[in-house]
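Trying the structure run again after the queue cleared.
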Amino acid sequence: MKLVVVSAGLSVPSSTRLLADRLAAAVDRKAGPAVDIQVVELRELAVDIAHNLTNGFPGRKLADALDAVTRADGLIVVTPVFSASYSGLFKSFFDVLEKDALAGKPVLVAATGGSARHSLVLEHAMRPLFAYLRAVVVPTAVYAASEDWGAEGLAERIERAAGELTALVSGLSGLSAQRPPVPKPLAGGFEVVPFEQQLNALRS
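Done. Tokens:
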């Protein structure tokens, strides 16, 4: 499994890169030793991306990054939120990618921001972008505001999203492993009957 992580963080250290690394580590734990992870730092490619936008040709480093993304089995893409959307650098990278490069490719989308109020960027900007590029976006997107680091919930969202990406890359057989277990009978003599079983009983 070849996993490419695209991080659009600009600062060093970067909370965007930190979130990208945690997502990649979670996929690595779930996918096992067969996973090959490559990180693409867009900050280091900013000039090459600008040149590609103006002259139509990628430099060597950008061409290598675009090739890695195109050949990946799955992607993790993480951007900081600027002006209520993904960063211009993040969008520009995917603007210079070949238009069919992400068709059918599983993608986990994530973002960081200073306020939880921007968390809908995942649904109103990132998910539509990758749907337009015909990628397969995992159901759980991950947003980390400043107050989320060290708080409850972020680690669970990372694990859930990583599990969904791993399952998509592995195929539909992996999705069944993500389903919650069938509940056991409750104490006190009550038994929970699965809804499908109740429907089948009504049909007979």
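The CA atoms of residues 3 and 37 lie 5 Å apart. Worth checking whether this holds up in the mutant runs.
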